[in-house]
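USER: Write out one fold?

ASSISTANT:
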Amino acid sequence: MLKKLHPNSEKGQAIVLLVFAFVGFLGFAALAIDGGMIYADRRHAQNATDASSLAGAGTAANSMESNGIYYENFICGSAGLSTVSTAAAQAAINRATSNDYTIDTDINDNHGVQIVCVDDENKGSYVDKYLDIVTMITRTTNTALMHFVYTGPVQEQAETIARVRPRTPLAFGNAIVALNDAACSGNSNGVIVGGSSGSYVHGGGIFSNGCLKCNGNHLLATVDAPDGIAFAGTTDCASSQLSPVASHVTETLPIASYDVDAPDCSGLPNRSMPAGKNVTLDPGVYSQINDNGKDTVVLNPGLYCLTGSPIAFKITTAWFYGDGVTLYATNGRILISGGGDDFGNPSVLNAPASSPDPSPAISGMLIYLAEGNTSDVQITGNSESQFTGTVFAPDGDITATGTGDLTAPFNTQLIGYNVQVEGNALIDIHFDGANTYAVPPRLDLQE
């Protein structure tokens, strides 16, 4: 006989289901609440390490500048860099404190700052030098619900490396540089050396991102030790044509090593060439500067922005003098031939010094063909001319030649898409980082 079920025999089953639902809800709540807190704390810790490392790097850059520590004298372990490192570490600690974190110089406990110095990282085409400011912060999150199922501490660890490089000569101090990375093709690509007497380079090397070409059967280029001659592409030069013998490298120069901000021409007045045989020019925006019908041309210190085409600047017959000038051509060629005046004074073009600040002219920059200007710069020197500063044509060509029986002095750095150096006189290039453009200290976060 079947027994009839009592109506209350299924009571309590809903409670079991509600318990399971509540546990699931509690899990989702813990995930949402505690997960959100963990994520927020992680972002806060990461932001704090970023800020601390950048504060240290900024202090290091300023300290290197004020103490005269540049690429050339950047030596790990030196007294100067020890002072820089101490200041950088303290700046990182102070910034962390302002964000409610207490750190010190012991990074081994995952909660501190460390300064790493590198002065000999060989990249093939150059030697890299830098300080790394490494900041690490560990943060513990006080969870709302997770401690019911996990009894250990919930910690987030954040680390940031800010790298700061010292003030560095453009293209790492090479005196002659071709940025074109194409292989040799006729007489058109890379660094081209030739001439009846060859070239002598003091204080910097010769480097080509692509082709290194020699025109002639004799010694065409000599570079003072310890600098050398290198190329990243191809060459047709024999060992007897270069001293020292050129070396092949696998890496081209990094773009950051020849990155130059364009000068600001917007605040300069528009000007034109004045009448007369003996003229004095003031800084400004010119369609063209030329010496047609002129005996002397004097350029007052400052920035000259040139917009004309096909020729933006041409002084080939008049005596000229410009001390502390930057010629910036957005269009057109630049043609210069130096000669003396009737009193035996040489023609002179010198880039601005760094002090006092020559802005909007660029310290150390004599000639700058703007990016996209594919025209050329032609400079002919002789015993009656003087050129000082960097000649920079990232998308254009540079030709430096010498005439006469005496040395043609170029106290310059020549950096162009292609660079040709040759003439019927010994071309003497003296590179001095104190007189040419340098890349300011730069900071970046490492991934």
